[in-house]
Amino acid sequence: TATKAFTVSATSTALSTAFSAFIFYVTSSLAGPEVVQASTAPLAQYLAMQEATQEKNKAPEITTTSSPRAMELAKRLKALDARMYGAFWCSHCYNQKQELGKEAFYNNIPYIECDKEGEDSQYSLCREKKVPGYPTWEIKGQLFPGEKTLDELDGVLKKLEGSDGQ
After folding, report:
1. Lower CB count within 10 Å: N or C terminus of the chain?
2. Beta strands, E only, 71-154
3. According to the model, what pLDDT value does residue 162 have?
4. pLDDT tens digits, residue range 97-112?
């Protein structure tokens, strides 16, 4: 009797496990690849670009085109002598640059590489400025750490521009 109970229990557990595995397989095949690709596409693009430039310890190239709003913000940032501190391997720095786009960023924003191993590193300046993390914006001598949306940058600029009558 004990042997029959064990056999029934083991068979029932095996069937339950097989059924669970089948359900997992069916649900992940129906929704899996599209969902994964959609959520990791920007990361995959960043990693591919980073891999291509990492041998030189150079930040990936900006690929987005600047919007009119990004261009206007970049000109205001330039007028306030803004600069961005970052590291070649930093995904948030890359996202920040992509948010502004190549025309706005390359033509208006000085980029300071803080990693010792980065191309054109200014590690000593970053330490002197006490840069708390990447990216960090320096605008009118004040540090603003963290990746910012265009709206957030606009808010910072409005406060700083208002502080001296501009």
Report:
1. N
2. 83-86, 111-113, 136-139, 142-145
3. 83
4. 999 999 999 999 999 9
Q: What is the pLDDT of residues 112-125, one digit of tens each?
A: 999 999 999 999 99
State pLDDT tens for residues 19-64. Answer: 444 444 434 444 444 333 334 456 666 666 656 555 578 989 999 9
Unique residue bearing structure tokens 């208006």:
108
3-state secondary structure the chain: CHHHHHHHHHHHHHHHHHHHHHHHHHHHHHHHHHHHHHHHHHHHHHHHHHHHHHCCCCCCCCCCCCCHHHHHHHHHHHHCCCEEEECCCCHHHHHHHHHHCHHHHHHHCCEEECCCCCCCCCHHHHHHHCCCCCCEEEECCEEEECCCCHHHHHHHHHHHHHCCCC
- What is the spatial distance between Cα 56 and Cα 102, in angstroms, rounded to a whole number? 20
Q: How far apart are CA 153 and CA 78, in angstroms?
A: 13
